[in-house]
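Problem: given the chain below (420 residues), write out its structure.
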Amino acid sequence: MKVVVVGGGFAGINFIKAIQSDKRFEITLVDKNNYHFFPPLLYQVASAFIEPSNISYPFRRMFQKKENLRFHMGSLVRVYAEENYIETDTGTLSYDCLVLALGTETNYFGMESVQKDSLPMKSIDEALYLRNHILLNMEKVVRMQNTSLRDKPLNIVVAGGGPTGVEFAGMLAELGRYIAVKEYPEIKDLRSHIYLVNSGPVLLGPMSKTAQQEAEKVLTKLGVNVILNAAVKDYVDGHVILSNGQTIETESLIWATGVIAREVPGLPADAITRGRRIMVDAFNKVMHTTNIYAIGDLCYQTSDPNFPEGHPQLAQVAMQQGKSLAKNLSRIASNKEPKAFRYKDKGSMAIISKYNAVADLPKFSFKGFFAWLLWLFIHIIPLIGFRNKVKLISSWMWAFITNDPTLRLIFRPSASKRKK
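Solution.
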């Protein structure tokens, strides 16, 4: 059976890893990148804390010596459900079974100026661009003779009080606390220029009250300006305009709030629901189709009795759905009944600053140093490749011990051809 998997994120890769030993399936992975990467640590790349190679792994390296695995580099253009093939920007692929695992993209909620000028953080490319942007602005500031003009390039506004926004704001504060004071003595206090803006009344909204209070307390102590109950309404001429009437002058609006499912042209219109997510049954089969499945952040499943409004768009859901679908396809191929997906909630975590994190486990919540250690351990396990795990542990140890990671390099690749 020919299985085409579109998307090499948590859902797609866990599906492939779980089904690759079943030689009845010939699997082709389609992805616009030639590597898998670990999104929860993108903010550490963007803040020059770890290298992108620490959280990335080539698909073709992953597929070595796997006779039934192939890779096709390209972006999905359209699904032809009746004809059983997909079109990509680099060719077409036929399938007996299609697995859609494209995930989400940044949602700007219709604000064109925000989409045009803000800085998202959903890919390695975006994280590296953001890192360069912040470092270049700091270089620009130290050259400025008129100190009264320094606020605008120094100010960094992080929109979104979820885990990504909280973790990135905390990492920027650590950068200001330990690095900027040594390497940019002209910049007196970078931390006072960091703004974390959230439309809700608390940070880390889906987490426990313990986590919410700890996040606000630690970030405020670090010097971050935490602004609650205020949404970004616009970004015009270098000014972030908030719903409470406040305006912040900045060249750096980091957009860490809101996602929307990636579009999949060609599916039945009535299979698409809110947030552009794809409606699936208890076995992750797309509604009104016979051989198309959707897993991870892309899908919307209401059959799980514990999550009648759909599952949260989390890595754990994607990983579990990928493994579940792999088992079900093997069961179907063996003429056995598939099993309905049930999500096992293992809790959620967020790191706030060095040696300080919050953890909500199924039966209790805790914070501080032990939560931080658990966070490190949990984020090492899902990394693909032993070398990646070792490199990341080494990078973390060096950075935490010395307070001086050496990754503040500004790379600016040129699109122009090299003259010979």
